[in-house]
Amino acid sequence: MLLLFGMSAAKALDAPPESSEAKPYPLTPSPCEGLDATPELFEAKSYPLTLTASVLGGYESNPTLLGDDLALPKGQSARGFGFFLTDNIVDFDWQAPDKLNEVDLSYEYTQVFYEGLSGTDEGDHEWKAKYRQVFNYIWSSVITADDKLVTFDGHSFSNKAWICPEIDWQPVAHYKTKVMSTFANYDTFFTATIPEQDPTAKSVSFEVYEEAELGKFSVIKVTPGFLHIVNSADGSDYDYNRNLFQIKLETNFDQIGAPWNNIHGTLKFIHFIDRYNHPNSHAGFAFARRDDENLVDLLLTYDLFHGRGHIQTFSLTMEYKYIRNDSNLPEFNYVDHIISAGCTFLLQ
C-alpha cells in the first residue's frame, strides 16, 4: 500500500536523516525507520518476481511547510497545490526449501509532480536488500540494507544509506516483539551557504515495537512502538535527539468473507519530541530549537479483483494525513493536510 508524504526542497533541508521518516521527508518512508517502516517477516510468494505500480492524485495544503504566520515566498502563488504521483516497485523474493532463510531484493522509483509549484518535483530511487533467518518457532532475525537517492526537478539532492539489524520474538501466534537499530549516513549534493545549516549527518537509533492481534480471526492488529535517535550533523543546527511514540491499528477481514475481505484500513498516530543540542542559526544563536509534532494518517484500500492472469491484485486507495508541528522557532510552526486517491496494480 502506498503511503504519501508531502515534500519539497525546503522541507528536505529542514529534515535531516532520522531513524523515523514519518516526518514529511523524504517522499516515501524507509525500512526499519519508524511506524511505516517496521519490517514485517517476509511472506512466501507464489511468484519470486513481482511488479507493483501505483498512480494517484491529490491535494496538499502546505507542501513547502511554510510557517503559520509567514508570507508566501516570492514566486509561490498559494499555500496549497494539487499533485500527481507514481510509484513503481520491482521485487524479487527467494525462500529456501526449509523456509528458514529468505532473501528479498527490490528497486523502487517514486515521482511526484506539483501543479504550479516549481522546484519541488521529487524523484526517489531506492535499492533495498533484506535477509531473514528463522532460528526456531519463537526467534528470528532480519537485516536490511538500503540506499536512497533523492532528486528535485531531475537534479541530485541527497543520498542516504543505512543498515538495520532486527531481532523478533514471537512466543505465541498473536503476539510479537521487534527490537532493532538503524545506522544511517546522509549526504547532500550541495554546499550549505551557512555552515551551521549543513544537514550532512550520521545517525543511530534504538527501536522497540509490539504487535498484538485482537478479536475473532485477528481482525485488528495493534502496534505500539518507541524510538530514540541521536543525529550528529556537520551543521550544528541539525544535531538533535528524538523520541518517538506511536500507535498503529490495522484491519484484517480476510477470514470474514466478501465484501469485507476486500477492505483494508490503517490508522496511525505518531508523536515526535525533538530536542536540538545547540543554539540555532535561525534564532541568531540565542537559543536551541525545540519541536513537538503530531501526525495522524488514515489509509483505506479496496481490492476490486484478484488473480486475473498476471494481475494478482487491483486496488483502489484513499488516504488522509494531518501533520502539526509546534516549535519555539515561529518559522517551524506549521500545519499540513494531505488527501489523495488512486489505484495500485500488483503484477506477477
Write a structural description.
- Helices cover 2% and strands 59% of the residues.
- With 348 residues, the chain is mainly β.
- It has one domain (9-347): monomeric porin ompg (Porin, Beta Barrel).
- It has a 15-stranded antiparallel β-sheet that branches.
- Residues 1-31 and 33-44 have low confidence and may be disordered.
Count of helix runs:
1
Strand content: over 45%
CATH topology grouping: Porin
Tell me the CATH architecture. Answer: Beta Barrel
- Taking all Cα atoms into account, the compactness measure Rg is 20 Å
Broad shape: globular
Describe how the helices and strands are arranged.
Blueprint: H1 9-14, E1 49-60, E2 81-95, E3 101-114, E4 122-134, E5 139-152, E6 155-172, E7 175-180, E8 183-188, E9 201-214, E10 220-233, E11 240-251, E12 263-279, E13 288-308, E14 311-327, E15 334-347
Antiparallel strand pairs: 1-2, 1-15, 2-3, 3-4, 4-5, 5-6, 6-7, 6-8, 7-9, 8-9, 9-10, 10-11, 11-12, 12-13, 13-14, 14-15
List keywords for this structure.
1 helix, 2% helix, mainly beta, globular
Short structural summary:
By secondary structure, the protein is an all-beta fold.
